[in-house]
Amino acid sequence: MELREAINARFSYRGSYAQQPVPRAHLREIMEAGLAAPSGCNKQTVSLIGVDDAELLQKLLSVMKPATCPTVTAMICVLTKRRIAYTDGNGVERCFAVQDYAAAIENMLLTITSLGYASCWIEGHITDADEQGKQMAQMLGVPEEYDLICVLPVGVPLDAQKRVWKREFEKRAWFNGFQTEA
Predict the structure, then answer these.
(1) Contact at 8 Å (CB) between 73 and 52?
(2) Other C-beta atoms within 10 Å of 63: how many?
(3) What is the mean pLDDT of the chain?
(4) Res. 179: pLDDT tops 70
(5) In the predicted model, what is the mean pLDDT of residues 124-150?
(6) Which residues of 8-44 are buried (b: 16+ CB within 10 A; e: fewer)?
(7) Residue 83 backbone zone (phi > 0: left; psi -120 to 50: alpha; other: beta)
(8) Where are the domains of the chain?
(9) Cβ neighbours of 85 (radius 10 Å)
(10) Which CATH fold topology does 3-157 show?
(11) Structure pTM?
């Protein structure tokens, strides 16, 4: 699949997955794409854990409430480690961990799509006050200085592909200045 085709085909899949394993080579390819993403001041704040062990996957999924992807056969856990990129002239520390993991996730989502799989960026429930991400991180042996910030289920979708409606280009993008809607 060409890049532009993958960009236009990608969507957040919240359906059931086929009980078909994702080859480890594909998981690696997806994770390598994530790690190839740009990183603010090259601090490389993103780390990843691919999960393809069925028993471990079920333990991780049991923590996720609501059950967002209970039939998935593989998952990528996205970790971030806060690293200060620099301190500006006013003494404010700058960290680009959010930008780093967002870029890594988008690279992985596009690669997932290009390989014929489906996924969904699951962050909100993982980082909520009930600390699902911390529980999952403990199961995976993640050191405390890292945060498990997101999970990406990876699998073959069983349900029809449902892309959401997007507003037209002219209502969201302009040249040489902001344009108000008529």
Answers:
(1) yes
(2) 17
(3) 93
(4) yes
(5) 93
(6) eebbebeeebeeeebeeebbeebbebbeebebbeebe
(7) beta
(8) 3-157
(9) 18
(10) NADH Oxidase (3.40.109)
(11) 0.93
